[in-house]
Specification:
CATH topology of the largest domain: Four Helix Bundle (Hemerythrin (Met), subunit A)
Helix content: 55-70%
CATH architecture of the largest domain: Up-down Bundle
Pfam family, one: FCD
InterPro entries: GntR_C, TF_FadR/GntR_C, Tscrpt_reg_HTH_GntR, WH-like_DNA-bd_sf, WH_DNA-bd_sf
CATH class of the largest domain: Mainly Alpha
Order of helices and strands: HEHHEEHHHHHH
Radius of gyration: 19 Å
Number of domains: 2
Keywords: DNA-binding, Transcription, Transcription regulation
Strand order of the largest sheet: 1-3-2
CATH superfamily of the largest domain: GntR ligand-binding domain-like
Number of helices: 9
Domain GntR C-terminal: 92-215
Oligomer: single chain
GO molecular function: DNA binding; DNA-binding transcription factor activity
Length: 222
Amino acid sequence: MITVAPMLLNSSKPEPTGAANDVVYRRLRAQVMHGEILPGSARTLRGIGKEFGVSMTPAREAMRRLVAEGAFTLSSSGRISTPELSNDRIEELAALRALLEPELAARALPRAHFALIDRLQSINGVIGQAIARQDAVGYIRTNLEFHRTLYLRAQAPAMLAMAETVWLQMGPTMRSLYEKLRRSELPRHHRLIVAALKAGDEPGLRLAVRADVTQGLRMLAQ
């Protein structure tokens, strides 16, 4: 296996911050977050550059940012790979979701107008289609879209950014979880979330969100 020397991610040369590394960063970030890359999958800067049609410099800068966010790990030998999370780490990230996401949902509740609820129900329909196709990546992507759409109404960008960092670190593991659960129907807690929004029920909303974001992860950690 080709590895990348640590110095490649720690070069003292100035790195560009323009369009090329931003495009690579955003596309790789989405791939990891949506479970397109499995846990423990190795990448090289040369391979990333070839995949996205860029030189080594923007590939290096994008990977540096993603390593800092926990989307990839860098070993002492220079091997870059998506994380293989221990049970303790899964429990920790599940606990973070249980703290952050019910609070985001509660802050969104006063702004949960009918258009938002209709949008969430529409996303649930797309999730159902992904389940019917056994499309793991489509399921993870639209499931996160459901949560992000709700949480944007919280108007708490720092808190949402923290939640998205957790999603990013969990992406490959969520793919493993989906394949383990082999869902055949829409997540029950999504219906409870929508019902709580319609009723203006903050305790019920917090409970439904907490159960939705932690139940499956804790099954994976068992």
